[in-house]
Amino acid sequence: MNKPAFLKLSTAMILFGSIGFFSRLTGLPSLELVFVRCVSATVILSIYWLAAGQYKTEKWNRKEFVFIIIGGIFLVLNWVFLFLSFETTSITAAISIYNLAPLLVLVIGWIFLKEPFQLTGFLAVVLAFVGTVLITVTSQTSLGDVLLKGSVYALIASVFYALTIITGKKISQASPYLVTFTQTAVGVIMLLPFVAFSKYSGLTVSNWMFSLITGVIHTGVVYLLFYGSIRYLSTTVISAVVYLDPLVAILLDIFVTGFSPSYLQILGIIFIFTAVTYTLKKST
Fold this sequence. Notes:
- The protein has one domain (3-283).
- The termini are close together.
- It has helices at 3-16, 19-24, 30-51, 62-88, 91-98, 101-112, 119-135, 143-148, 152-168, 176-191, 205-227, 235-241, 244-255, 263-283.
- By secondary structure, the chain is an all-alpha fold.
- The radius of gyration is 18 Å and the shape is globular.
- 73% of the residues lie in helices and 0% in strands.
- The chain contains 14 helices and no strands.
């Protein structure tokens, strides 16, 4: 296994696991927040791409660029439907259903990418998914609620997330900078007609700071690491590592806000750690 790629993807998922904390502090609705993420990431990364002279060594491939554009559409739709699911159903149910994406990635990889089926890898990802379900169960939400109250938006978001990963694996020549700012630029174009700019009036300096952090760090940096790693990793490894995202979210709740996990949530954390560690060892 490519260890640098594994570390990049792990870092991306760890960073992304904190986006919930920051998004709550932006004061923005979902669509307007996604728009800010796309604009700030596009501006910062394109400036760096030009200033650093990255464009001089860029490898252009027409077929690959089509995948970049398609992947950008999938990525933005994934964000929009995920935040819509947060607005229309419980976050616990949405997160549980959304995390079906890694399982979808495995299935798509086996069927369309002709990757070899690995029973132990599949079981590890299933274990991570069960762990995610367990850690999203709170004192206000039963296991039945998590399984039964899923929004169709969360399911759609998980499909687009899986398709984002699959199309990303089709990109091997373009730099992560080109891929990321092109896809966020696609997002700007897609969302521009629907943005309610009045939502930005009245935002405080603090709101803007957290909004820009979600754009630069949780979008720009995260997807640089994401696209700079998944091309070098198998779908089995990717599917397991993606579960670091919900794991980090619950750990932040524990250590930052003083949240006390239940026995089921502790078991879920152990499941995810076990699945990711097992996948890493079997892939080295």
